[in-house]
């Protein structure tokens, strides 16, 4: 069906994404997807019969269009002469989702660890430890200027797939708040019955335990593509879940470098997903 020469066939599809600031997007076409396992890239400059003031109204996710298709030198489909045939009404503004019932409670704890290179850490808290038998996961976007050993109050949401508590809405704990971790409590109890103090836990062992706790977060199957020939813009695609994101505009994914291996990886804002950039 496709060759490196221009395809003399007209297609119909739906706009899957569009970035007005960058001036490009992607069109999904079932037949193209079936054959090539990818969407069709288009530039705003190839959209016809739409006035500049109508772009945000017409060129948007869900709009139906027709176009002619070429393949670039890398074999990726590119839409030409795009014409919008129908555009959906604008959806109402989303209503913020409330926290799950019972999670409005403010817990108190101490930031036990945080690693700048990985972008996450953990909070010690007696109440949550008794409930989940583990420390509370802390993502860098929730850090809010706090550092290790700071006493904090926080809310949690629970990753239902793993049962893992994750901290949100951090604020400084009041001086009178009790914020000892379960580990600290057990160490104090042990010190009253033992003459010889137990040496502190090795820091590398702590890090290994935390890394082990996140092993089930890593995903495979992500592939990196250049937006178009000669461009320095790239996007990622995962066939298993039919997900993609653009590196330059992703609000959900952030890139970090692992200090130990010096390899780059992408971390999802949910705190429950990540993948190695170098293994694609």
UniProtKB/TrEMBL annotation:
Highest taxon of the lineage: Eukaryota
Name of one Pfam family that matches: CSD
Domain CSD: 106-172
SUPFAM superfamilies xrefs: Nucleic acid-binding proteins
InterPro entries to which the protein is assigned, alphabetical: CSD, CSP_DNA-bd, NA-bd_OB-fold
Bias (Low complexity): 180-199
Region (Disordered): 173-210
SMART domains attached to this UniProt entry: CSP (SM00357)
Name the record gives this protein: CSD domain-containing protein
